[in-house]
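Good morning,

Attaching, inline, the backbone tokens for the sequence recovery test we're adding to the shared suite. The designed sequence is right after.
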């Protein structure tokens, strides 16, 4: 949750059960405005730290795959088949 221009998510109420906490902390007062929150996020470089986590990388990869065109999915399938065939050849050689 934060300024939409920084986090991509509008500020809104959310049930505590749905939250997933991270180790990133920004020191802000209770009921802070968007401007205060944006300044705190920029000062502590929270978004930079977040983008370096494996969780953020997984989310980004999932978004990329969701936005693929039909032809891109086809190219991915062909590449996976090709890689699988090469792995099978190598594994067959090592078994002997």
């Amino acid at each position: 949750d934060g300024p939409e221009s920084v986090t991509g998510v509008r500020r809104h109420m959310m049930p505590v059960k749905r939250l997933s906490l991270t180790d990133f902390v920004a020191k802000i007062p209770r009921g802070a405005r968007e401007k205060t929150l944006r300044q705190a996020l920029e000062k502590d470089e929270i978004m930079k730290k977040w983008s370096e986590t494996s969780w953020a990388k997984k989310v980004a990869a999932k978004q990329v795959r969701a936005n693929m065109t039909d032809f891109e999915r086809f190219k991915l399938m062909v590449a996976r088949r090709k890689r699988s065939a090469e792995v099978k050849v190598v594994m067959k050689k090592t078994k002997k």
